[in-house]
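Lay summary. Proteins are chains of building blocks that fold into shapes, and those shapes determine what they do. In this project we predict the shape from the chain. Here is one chain we studied, written as its sequence of building blocks.
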Amino acid sequence: MKKLAIIAIFIVALAFGGFLGFIITGFATAGTTQDSFEFYYEPSSPDPIEELFMNVDVGGVEIQYNNSNTPYYAKIEVSIVVSGLFMAGRNYLDFFEPYTEWWDNSSDPVSFDMNVKPDVWFDPSHWFKSYNIDIKVTLRTDVIYNVFANVATGSLKMRVPENIVLNNTVLRTSTGSVLLSSSSNTNFQGIVLVQSSTGKANVSSKESNYAYGLVSGTSTGSLILNFENCIMSNDIKGTVSTGSITYNTDNLTFTKDSSIVLQTTTGSIGGVINQYEDLGANVSAIFGVTTGGIDLVYINDKSNIGTKFTSTFTTGGINYDYSGLEFFQVDGILTSGNYNTAPYRYMFTLSTVTGNINVDAESHHL
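And here is the predicted shape, written in a compact code that computers can read:
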């Protein structure tokens, strides 16, 4: 028995010594590898609408516009930092495909594909690594683009300055956040889609025109929609599986009858709608929650907009807060006094299976 105990102690000591040596070696060879690259797109025969496709496995991508004249239709700057243990002798090729395979300037459309190599199970430098990848894309203000960007793990931001015309704009992330912001006199002439699988999706627009409306959402995370003095020519759709939706508008107007459809399975919907300008059309707003509540503030200052709220729930309650003579309530329906005579109507259908519906409605014009 004594010999067995000695053998056991020896094996444990050997294993511990090996593990300790492994850790010491890892820290002794810890470090960072850094690389940076630049890519340019300048077509020999420009098209009326230039197309740019981006697929990035990991990193933070920011799409912006130039501040000064540039001959390039697109400039892509890549900064790579990989840190961790066992990094001695490593470079970016141990973790990424060669940069010469990322940018295809000759393809139609042009594409940027930054691919990460699969983790190697027997290489400890892959076990302890951390990435810090920044990708900056600069576009020209005088060019109309189709932009299709997808990030697997990381963030995606597109900031559009004043007086820009865009065609199709599709921004997606699998794990990470996605943001689209636009400034005065931005014209989205094509489809606009902003989605994340796991993370936050955020659209913030000021004085922008959406010719084909907006499709947005996230599976797990939050969705934030903010529109200030914007014009919609089609529907707004926002979908979340698990998470909240925040919807805020100031003077959102429509060029034709349209729908606003916001739905979440587990979460909440909340926001503020301020309407001090003509609505321009009839709008059906359908807000639906399975498990969670709806909290909405509605302020209307136009006599030509009639408003109706129809609310339903299975388990929960309805609370309407409104000025007595401006609205009248019958069961779960709240209607403005001018609903039957106004040329434009804002029709809200609010529903939850389990939760409360709270509406604070004001109409100052009556």
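What the prediction tells us: Residues 244-366 form one domain.
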